[in-house]
Structure formats: C-alpha cells, structure tokens
Amino acid sequence: MPAAPSFRVAALPMLFALMANAAAQAFTLVVLPPLGRSLGFTDIQTGALLGLSALVLLIAAPIGGTLSESFGRKPVLLVALAAAAAGPALSALVIGFRLNGAITAMAALGLLFAIRFLQSALAAGLLPAAQAFMADSTKAEQRAEGMGLLGAAYGIGAVAGAACAFAIGGTAPVVAFAALSATVAAGFLAVWTTLREPVPNRPAGMGKTPLSLPRLLPNLTVTFLAITVYGMVQHVTALRLQDGFGLDVASSISRAGVTLMGAALSMALVQAFALRWLRWPATRLMLAGAGVALVAMTVAATTQSWPLLAAAIILFGAALGLLLPGNLASLSLAAGVQAQGRAAGINAVAQGLGMAAGPIAGAMLHGLAVTAPFLASCLLLAVVLAAPLLASPRRRQPA
C-alpha cells in the first residue's frame, strides 16, 4: 500500500488555487480605482464597489466555515473557487461593453455591484475552508508550517496580481481580467480532480468540540491588531514619503510600491521556507514575530532616512511571516478538532475588520502627524506581544 502524501504535497492544488485567487483580488484592488474613472464612475462609487466585498465577507465567512464542517472542506472550496473564477470573467464582459459604449455607466456600475456581491458571498468560505483543510491535514507540531503555506500562497499571488496590474492592467484590462479568471478556473479544476477530503488528526472516539469564544479571544485580538497595523502601513507609506521626506507624488508612489512589494515578498518567503526550518511552537513564533515587528515599527516611527524606513517596513513584513502563522496555529489548537471551520470563519471576520480599520485609522492619524500611524502601530504591537502569553497551552484541547 503506497504511503500517504505529505500535507505539503496533498495541499498543492489548493495552494495553487489560493494563489490564483489572490492574484485576481490584488489586480482588482490596484486597477479598479483608476479604471473606474474611465468607465464613468466617481471615486466614491468605485470605493463603495471595492468595499462591498469586505462587508459581505464579514457576514458570509462564518457561514462558509460552518458549512465546511457540515458538508466537507472540498465542496466549500469548489463553490468558492467557482465564484472566484466567474467574478472576473463577468466583470471583463461588463467592462468591455462599457468601454465600447454598449451600456451606460450606471448600468455597468449596477452590474458590477451585483457581480461583486455574489462573488463575495459565494467565495467567502474559501479562506475558512482552506484553514480548516490545513488544520485537518497537519499534526499539532506541523500546524504553524501548514498555516504559513496558506499565507505564502496568498502573498505570492498578491505580488503576481500587482505585477500583472503594472504590466497590462492599464492597457488591456479586459484581457487581464479574463486571463486571471482562467487561472482561477484552472485552480478550480486542480482542486476538483486531485484534492482529497482530509481526515482530521484526532484521537479515536473524540466527540464534537464546542466552540469557546473566550478561549479564542487572544488569537482573534492578534489577528485584528496585526492586520490593522499592516493596513495602516500600506495606506500611509506613500504619504509618509511625500509629506515626511518631501518626495513628489510619482516618486513617493513608486518607492512605496517597491517597499510594500518587498514587505509582501519577505512575508511570503518566511512563511514558505523559514517556518519549515525553524519548527518553532506557535507561542514562540508569535512572541518572536510580535517582538521583531515592534522593533521594526519603532525604527519606522523614528527614522529620518527613507531607505531605513523601507528596510524597517520590509523587516515588518518578515515579522508578520512569523506572527500570523503562529497565531493561526495557536487559534487552531485552541478551537478543538471539530470546530476548525467555525473558528476560521470567525477569524476571517477579525481579519476583515482589521482590513477595514487600518486604512481609516492610518488616514486619520496621518492628519495629526506623519509619524503618528507608526507610533500608534508600536502601541498596538505591544498589545500583540502580550497576547501570546494569554494564548497559552492551558487553553488548548489535550492531545
């Protein structure tokens, strides 16, 4: 009888699909704001179109996680990937019709709102189901590495999507949307044909585990605060270069783009390779990641050199590569073996709230002082550093 494949090999189809979906989402976030003006939308209308997905995610993600426990991880993944592939394809049709003058701006806006709503609602279970799949496929000592692979897939996909936006997003958006849709569809086919429903690693005879939110609260706090800080950094880096270092608009955008891409790459590399080499337990990863992130943000808040600012932000990305997988592993171990989908769905809500809060808080704080967002990040990361001590093994389900 052949040996079962390792969890890394077994998860490859899903990781490819997550990477393709992340590329499509990143491309949309980069291209749609300027493209919306060409389609006849106001900036507020385009912002609402992009913000709709975050709002729907907050509602639908816990539902997707719960459904993955009732019907299995693979069916939820397939539904989510089908929606993720159909969304860009339908958007390409609407954008093409609008650019050719076949439909009005208001008709195009209404159709795109409907497409984004349905795509977000049906695809919201993708990340909770993927996290639950990885929890089912890994042992406790492998959990952080498995969660890191999910983060690496998203990080590499985001970089690829941004690169696609810079390469052809402005000249051939319809072709780019169609190509990204085809890539997600290929991920759907890979999952459908080769991914096997995992058998959870749990002792024989173990009953269903109730979900205890108080046990998960330290990890949910880490998710919210870490993503909030990351969102602030993403939003204010170009503004800091422009207002704090006197760079012009084009230079600040260019240098901020390179810096943030470096942060995403460093995060992905740590998640893909360093975690497997370190093999640290979840709490140590969280403490190390939060500590390095705090040092990086302290440097970013006090430096008067833009290269040092860039280096600090890239180091911050690497620190998140330790912190976030460690936190997901700790959350998974605290949730219980039969509450993985529900726990991942609730964590997705915390992540969505952080993604929404970060840019808003960053913009408000930047209005007070150019260093204020980075000083506030230091305070939030100090709280994050304390959270792993609360997320102790005492909360976890015994093996």
Secondary structure class reads mainly alpha
Quaternary state reads: single chain
Number of strands: 0
The biggest beta sheet reads: none
Indicate the radius of gyration in whole angstroms: 21 Å
User: What percent of residues are in strands?
Assistant: under 5%
Contiguous low-pLDDT stretches (5 residues minimum) are: 203-207, 393-399
State the helicity in percent bands. Answer: over 70%
Shape: globular
H/E element sequence: HHHHHHHHHHHHHH
Number of helices: 14
Distance between the termini: 28 Å
What value does the average pLDDT take?
85
Describe this structure in words.
- The protein is mainly α and 399 residues long.
- Helices cover 83% and strands 0% of the residues.
- The chain contains 14 helices and no strands.
- The longest helix has 33 residues.
- It is globular and about 55 Å long.
- The two termini are 28 Å apart.
- The relative contact order is 0.15.
- The C terminus is likely disordered.
Jot down its keywords.
399 residues; mainly alpha; 14 helices; disordered C terminus
Brief digest:
This protein has 399 residues and is mainly α. 83% of the residues lie in helices and 0% in strands.
SSE layout:
Blueprint: H1 7-10, H2 12-39, H3 43-71, H4 73-99, H5 105-123, H6 126-137, H7 143-169, H8 173-194, H9 213-245, H10 249-278, H11 282-302, H12 306-335, H13 340-368, H14 372-390
